[in-house]
Amino acid sequence: MSDRIEKFGLQIDKTLFDFIETQALPETGVSSDDFWKGLSDLAHEMGPKNKALLDKREALQQKIDEWHIRNRNAPHDHEAYKSFLEEIGYLLPEGGAFEIDTANVDPEIASVPGPQLVVPITNARYALNAANARWGSLYDGFYGTDAMGTPAPKGGYAKGRGARVVARSRVFLDGAFPINGGSHADAQRYYVHQGVLLVDDNPLESPEKFVGYKGHPKAPDSILLKNNGLHVELVFDRTHPIGSRDQCGLADVQIESAISAIMDCEDSVACVDAEDKVQAYSNWLGLMKGDLVDTFEKNGETVTRQLNADRVYTSPDGSGEVVLKGRALMLVRNVGHLMTNPAILTKDGGEIYEGLMDAMVTALIAKHDLGRESGNSVTGSVYVVKPKMHGPEEVAFANDIFTHVEKVLGLPQYTVKLGIMDEERRTSVNLKECIRAAKSRVAFINTGFLDRTGDEIHTSMEAGPFSRKDFIKRKAWIGAYEDRNVDIGLECGLSGKAQIGKGMWAMPDKMAAMLEAKIDHPKSGANCAWVPSPTAATLHALHYHTVDVFAVQERLRKGGRRAHVDTVLDIPTASYRKWSKDQITREVENNAQGILGYVVRWVDQGVGCSKVPDINNVGLMEDRATCRISAQHIANWLHHDVVSEAEVMEIMQRMAEVVDGQNAGDALYTPMAPGFDGIAFQAACDLVFKGRVQPSGYTEPVLHQRRLELKAG
């Protein structure tokens, strides 16, 4: 065990202590003693409350299990079930109307709809990519993906494809910025005259969409346009390989893309001890101070990456400057209430609740940004996304945590804004009261199908076997859950004050499919949605030019739609259970392959988020949420004898061989076959065979234990 430093009853790993003392605390105005005493008070006063909330989760779960067991042989009585949930305090009465009063919210959260990235904070390169994904090349997005219907070509530049990219981009420009009596496809010249943009002497149909330029007004180097709050920059350069062949010298179309980015300390990382936490906190510190730099090898060359500078343009009338951020607004996702971490021990020798440590340290680090020129928040706010909260009491607890943190750090109350992730069943059915519990902090709510379904399976484990995963998506409850999240968010006044978000597109190589499907998110009234890469953010941004999200929200608000909690409470158990042997095998194989492909990298390499080929070799973004649903699904089928332990183990071993083959080119990879006795394989088996007894079906306890076991060895 590493050396520990004692402070106010805390036993702090020296690695973490030194980081806080020498890097995080200086220049914050917070003294060492104030910080450590504040953290000790938080751990020792809030820790017992944290445990009591976790105990309540388990007590409610036990009652729900017992109810399903008592009623297993009778047809499901929805009204009796709902009354039972009310009786035990799971489904709470809904209070009167209110609106959030969150103040000092940045425009990226309040008034600019657009794509959102989620990225593991432990990887500096990825974190910088995400922060810099505020802007992206539409030409690159079309050329380098299958967005236009065919895969990107291999080898040198394909002129025919390049011409298609240029034509497709001009179709977008005609849609978002139509020209009076003309088309961008025919444009020979763009210039500025008396503050007005003219395209071959024709103005835009909406002249106010022209907001700036660079260079000389008669022959600009670039033109800045704005539509639905998002900016587009037309870049002209006749010396550029693309611009030199273009009729008006248009070399690129730059799209404002990832408006915000969540720097993740939770589901996409593998942080199990002080060493890991310091890596996460160090990168967050670099982002908040603006000096994070990463150097790496790419295509045989050494590349150094740092945060992009702001973009400066001349105002249309030439009298002043227009300054736009070069980086996404950054939020930080703390861990939930469940996990503890050995980085700090409390007076009784137990591990600190990791969420309490995250709250104090990430907020301390964010002080470096407040008031900084060209910083993250222009309104003096800190944005913390808090996942995996179950119901209003747990949201109120998070609110109290940050009130304590603000007092210790000398921050005005409600400096810390809270993101409530609507991904646990008890939060979904009590969402209005969850928002009320933090109505002066809420800056973000979202839905997440994967964690939400994993919790649905675990909560209703005793109700019977669940449908196959693809069929779960078709059940009525998921649509009601998605709609209700937006409806309640609008009822509670989030429009224009906070983000209402939607979940991840999990296939980073399937951009044509994303362009077809993901427009449904802004059409649903969501003003942000998650994408798996900067390129995906650029392409998804096109949807927010097509859809005026605030107009959609106003229609929904006036229409008074309210998806009903009764539908959300419909349990997606299988009504048809006469699956063939092949159907059962295929479902378990797909789940097992995803679990193994993710867990082997998590445990062996400490990689918390990765693109894992599925059983059909389609690359899927996997994190603990995807792992949770897959593990809970197999655990449910095991529990109800849809499949036997022996059959599952045979499939796990066979899929381990498939995963070994898919990772054959990774020099750091340790094969699971033929011994099947490695820690990673054992961890995957634990998630499945012990899945029914994991708290809320979470994967963290098993993964952390096995990763610590490997690191100790």
Brief characterization of the structure:
43% of the residues lie in helices and 18% in strands. The chain has 713 residues and is α/β, with parallel strands linked by helices.
Which characteristics define this entry?
713 residues, alpha/beta, Malate Synthase G, Chain: A, Domain 4, eight-stranded parallel β-barrel, 25 helices, 26 strands, 43% helix, globular
List the helices and strands and how they pair.
Blueprint: E1 4-7, E2 10-13, H1 14-24, H2 32-70, H3 78-87, H4 107-110, E3 114-120, H5 124-131, E4 135-137, H6 138-143, H7 159-176, E5 190-193, E6 196-199, E7 202-203, E8 210-216, E9 219-227, E10 230-236, E11 250-256, E12 260-264, H8 274-289, E13 293-298, E14 301-306, E15 311-314, E16 321-324, E17 329-333, E18 340-345, E19 351-353, H9 354-366, E20 382-386, H10 391-409, E21 416-422, H11 425-428, H12 431-436, E22 442-447, H13 449-459, H14 469-472, H15 476-491, E23 499-502, H16 511-517, H17 520-523, E24 528-531, H18 534-546, H19 549-559, H20 565-568, H21 581-605, E25 610-613, E26 619-622, H22 624-639, H23 645-662, H24 679-689, H25 700-712
Parallel strand pairs: 3-12, 3-24, 12-17, 17-20, 20-21, 21-22, 22-23, 23-24
Antiparallel strand pairs: 1-2, 2-18, 4-11, 5-6, 6-7, 8-9, 9-10, 10-11, 13-14, 15-16, 18-19, 25-26
Helix pairs in contact: 1-8, 2-10, 8-9, 9-10, 13-22, 21-22, 21-23, 21-24, 21-25, 22-24, 24-25
Function: Involved in the glycolate utilization. Catalyzes the condensation and subsequent hydrolysis of acetyl-coenzyme A (acetyl-CoA) and glyoxylate to form malate and CoA.
Keywords: Cytoplasm, Glyoxylate bypass, Magnesium, Metal-binding, Oxidation, Transferase, Tricarboxylic acid cycle
Catalytic activity: glyoxylate + acetyl-CoA + H2O = (S)-malate + CoA + H(+)
